[in-house]
Amino acid sequence: MASEQFSLRIPQNTKSKLEELAKATGRSKSYLAVEAIDKYLEHEAWMIRAVQEGLKAADNGELVPLEEVKSYWENR
Question: Residue 34's CB: how many other CB atoms inside 10 A?
Fold first, then answer.
């Protein structure tokens, strides 16, 4: 996969944590940063899709009664 240079400013404590993790895992800081960004983007995309699906279901009248939701969470 082709890659491009990308720079950003991060807080010193984040940089320190990244350096510590890179040293502990034997991975480069760049590798770890790309992995973290990819995971974040996947999670955010999933959440946006889930919200959009939920809104579409609500618009279609596909709702779950509050008591059913409470019962589900109380009995877990």
Answer: 13
> What does the pLDDT read at residue 57?
97
- Closest-CA residue to 4 (of 39, 30, 36): 30
* Number of independent structural domains in the chain: 1
Range of the domain at 34: 12-74
Look up tokens 């609500």; give the residue: 58
Prediction pTM value: 0.76
**5 in a structural domain:** no
Distance between CA atoms of residues 29 and 22, nearest Å = 6
Quote the CA–CA distance of 47 and 65 in Å, as a whole number.
22
**Helix or strand (DSSP H, E) at 58:** helix 29-59
**How confident is residue 1, by pLDDT bands cut at 50, 70 and 90?**
confident
Within a domain: 2: no
Instruction: Report yes or no on 1 lying in a domain.
Output: no
